[in-house]
Amino acid sequence: MRIATYNVEWFNALFDNHGRLLDDDEWSVRYNVTRGDQIAGLGIVFNAMDADAVMVIEAPDQNGKRSTVKALENFAAAMGLRARRAIMGFENETQQEIALLYDPDIMTPRHDPKGEPTGKQGARDAPRFDGVFRWDLDVDSAPELIRWSKPPLELAVTLKTGAQLRMIGVHAKSKAPRGAETPKEIMRVSIENRRKQMAQCIWLRQRVQTHLEEGESLIVLGDFNDGPGLDEYEKLFGRSSVEVVLGGPEADPALRLYDPHAHQALQARLAAKPATSRFYMADHKCYMSALLDYVMLSPDLVSRRAAWRIWHPFDDPGCYSVPELREALLAASDHFPVSVDIEL
After folding, report:
1. CA of 269: how far to CAs of 207, 234, 259, in Å?
2. Are 243 and 77 in contact (CB under 8 A)?
3. First to last CA, the chain
4. What are the residues whose beta carbons fall under 8 Å from the beta carbon of 253, sequence distance 6 or more?
5. Burial call 108-138: b when 16+ CB within 10 Å, e when fewer
6. Of 15, 48, 194, 245, which sits 20 to 30 A from 324 (CA to CA)?
7. For the stretch 83-103, what's the b/e string if a residue is b when 16 or more beta carbons lie within 10 angstroms of its beta carbon?
8. Using an 8 Å Cβ cutoff, are 256 and 203 in contact?
9. Is 223 helix (H, G, I), strand (E, B) or coil?
10. How high does pLDDT run on average in the chain?
11. Which CATH superfamily groups domain 2-108+151-173+198-341?
12. Rounded distance, CA 223 to CA 211, Å?
């Protein structure tokens, strides 16, 4: 079985209000890429992956006029994908939903959020992800009130074999200091954003630990906007938010998640790291690569001959050697898919 996560930049802008693809020569929101070229690229990438399920990050918008599920299922039908059904959880206000495209012949997922709803005052013990989390990150005895702008998608999945597993799709807060101009503002906003992101991931870790303590098979996947050694502000908090979700070395091995790319980055902070995204830096006139996307597995799933792959157009020989796929990956998004094959 192949499970993947894929952050599709501005997927929403490729559909009209009826969920129909805007397959034309107009510019997409992606720089210097037409809507038709981005759609064609996405079709090539999704078909090349041929995944049983794809956690789509930045999925098309859900609101009174637009339907995430309709748009994704129309896309799947147009591209002839096996993963032709879609499911989402709590909608958000960012035009970037989290949704799962899946093969209904292989699995049946249902939205199954855990935790209790909260009021404005929040709660400290893993409340429901559309609620409010109380956590004191700056040790001033005044807990911050933390919300997810994109609440994680919690799914209970039944496979055709009858096996059960859980998935949590994640799009954690960006740490980018948007709107800041002076060095002092950039530092302040960067630290504030990292603090909020860390709190989100502490909240997520509480949920992860509960599932692992109950012996459930668990996959946590998506865009964490963070990774070991990614920026200079990490030392203020001791570790990255990704490390928090995985579970540190002090945790019982049975209560840790595993992702080999995160492990590689942790082992070699001064060496080259895997990358799942590529952004153009206008100030420096070059591209920056970063490890932001992960597929984390519970120990029982790791033992099922789990094999990970980053579909990077330059780092993965299989992607690079097929020019059509290589160019499609570059046109489709500023992130690249991450997949894992598991014997289930």
Report:
1. 28, 12, 16
2. no
3. 6
4. 299
5. ebeeebebeebeeebbeebbbbbbbbbbeee
6. 15
7. bbbbbbbbbbeebbbbbbbbb
8. no
9. strand
10. 91
11. Endonuclease/exonuclease/phosphatase (3.60.10.10)
12. 20
Long-range pairs for 259-267 at CB < 8 Å and ≥24 separation? 259/294, 259/295, 259/296, 259/297, 259/308, 260/308, 261/291, 261/294, 261/308, 261/310, 261/338, 262/227, 262/228, 262/291, 262/294, 262/296, 265/227, 265/228, 265/229, 265/291, 266/228, 266/229
Structure tokens at 185: 């503002």
Which residues have C-beta within 8 Å of that of residue 273, sequence separation ≥ 6?
227, 229, 261, 264, 265, 291
Taking a C-beta distance cutoff of 8 angstroms, is the pair 96, 58 a contact? yes
Contact criterion met (CB below 8 Å) for 96 and 59: yes
Burial tier of 237 (Cβ tally within 10 Å: 0-12, 13-18, 19+): middle
Q: Where are the domains positioned within the chain?
A: 2-108+151-173+198-341
Q: In this predicted model, what pLDDT tens digit does every residue of 279-326 receive, in sequence order?
A: 988 888 899 899 999 999 999 999 999 999 999 999 999 999 999 999
- Write the CB contacts of 88 (distance below 8 Å, at least 6 apart in sequence): 59, 62, 68, 69, 97, 98, 99, 100, 111, 153
The span from the CA of 33 to the CA of 9, in Å, is 12
Q: Answer left, alpha or beta for residue 10, where phi above 0 means left and psi between -120 and 50 means alpha.
A: left
CA distance 136 to 144: 6
Element (H, E) at 278: strand 277-281
State the amino acid at position 297 in one-letter form.
L
State pLDDT tens for residues 42-69.
Answer: 999 999 999 999 999 999 999 999 999 9
Instruction: Give the CA angle between residues 81, 322, 26 to the nearest 5°.
Output: 65
Collapsed DSSP state (helix, strand, coil) of residue 263 = helix
